[in-house]
Design a protein that fits this description.
This protein has 2 domains: 4-214, Spore Coat Polysaccharide Biosynthesis Protein SpsA, Chain A; 217-310. The protein has 11 helices and 10 strands. The chain has helices at 16-24, 44-48, 71-81, 100-110, 143-149, 166-171, 184-192, 223-243, 249-269, 275-284, 293-310; strands at residues 4-10, 31-37, 57-61, 86-89, 95-96, 116-124, 130-133, 140-141, 162-165, 197-208. Strands 1, 2, 3, 4, 5, 6, 7, 8, 9 and 10 form a 10-stranded mixed sheet that branches. Helix 5 runs parallel beside helix 9 and helix 8 packs antiparallel against helix 9. The mean pLDDT is 93.
């Protein structure tokens, strides 16, 4: 039985070969890979076929596109299939450095009490060139330190940078399900880091920024309301989670930082909603994160008026 499973929910083929090549090239080899084609309109199997001669690689295809309704439902389906001690929820457009799993394995052996492990990542562009480098942190972060670290300015995202102790993830309810998986990684990783999070010293994961990611689809009138909804759900989840934790000064700072994150997300996406969605979202926005709702309403109406005037 291998020790690790790379779970790869796949839909886009553009960079899939690079990701598969980066997994196959790992210096630590005790792993398997489940590639789960989410009923993609692209022929992903032909991209995967050169890797299927490697017995560690398995290809499957969903009968329907699960991700169109819930990205997290696809993630959790794969978690249920996982029978190894550790798992990585990877992606179809990022890539790993060859020592990624070797260094993660060293951390899992060094910190047996920990359930969450992370490779320090870089942001890269379509060509794989670094556009943002995350700075180093302590090797072992406490729960509070990890949660604060999530909101530091230099931090790079990427769910595929994390490795989970499978049984603990299942025990805690698997990935938290928000629309578009927006903030699902934050919530899940905060939940999984109660026993700490161990982080590699070197940057061993590359999070690719592309124009086809949900993350970078600014102004999309279909996606933006879902992002606002997910942000509000995360706000409620985080308040409930922090209420279950011992109150400390550090956690007061956590609340301040996550309120700032919620504020910026609402400001970024709410103005691209339809009038009905805007009013609904504005009504449900929390009052303790510094939003000026009347001013936001006036700004929205002004933007809509100017847009209609140009038409």
């Amino acid at each position: 039985m291998p020790k690790y499973t790379f779970l790869l929910p796949a839909y886009k083929g553009r960079f899939l070969n690079e990701m598969l090549r980066s997994i196959q090239g790992q210096t630590y080899t005790d792993f398997k890979v489940i590639i789960s084609d989410d009923c993609s309109p692209e022929n992903l199997k032909i991209i995967c076929e050169p890797y299927l001669s490697d017995p560690r690689f398995i290809y499957r295809r969903n009968a329907v596109n699960i991700g169109s309704k819930s990205l997290v439902a696809h993630w959790n389906l794969l978690v249920e299939m996982c029978d190894t001690e550790f798992m990585i929820m990877t992606s179809d457009d990022d890539m790993y450095e060859p020592q990624f799993l070797e260094e993660i394995n060293m951390l899992t052996e060094k910190y047996p009490q920990v359930n969450l492990f992370r490779a320090r990542p870089n942001d890269v562009n379509n060509l794989g060139e670094i556009i943002k480098a995350e700075g180093p942190s302590e090797e072992l972060l406490t729960h509070e330190a990890f949660t604060l670290r999530l909101y530091d300015a230099d931090v790079v995202g990427g769910e595929a940078a994390y490795c989970y102790r499978t049984k603990e993830l299942i025990k805690k309810g698997m990935f938290v399900n928000f629309p578009l998986a927006w903030f699902s990684d934050d919530a899940t990783n905060i939940m999984m880091s109660v026993e700490g999070c161990a982080v590699t010293k070197e940057a061993l994961f590359n999070f690719r920024r592309t124009d086809i990611q949900i993350t970078n689809q600014w102004g999309n009138p279909i996606i933006c309301p879902q992002k606002v909804k997910a942000t509000l759900l995360f706000y409620k989840w985080m308040n409930k989670f922090l209420a279950s934790r011992p109150a400390t000064l550090k956690e007061n700072e956590i609340a301040r930082r996550f309120h700032k994150k919620v504020y910026s997300n609402i400001q970024n996406y709410i103005y691209h909603c339809s009038p009905a969605r805007f009013m609904s979202c504005l009504y449900y926005c929390p009052n303790d994160i510094g939003l000026y709702k009347f001013r936001m309403f006036l700004h929205y109406m002004h933007v809509r008026f100017m847009k209609n005037k140009r038409i």
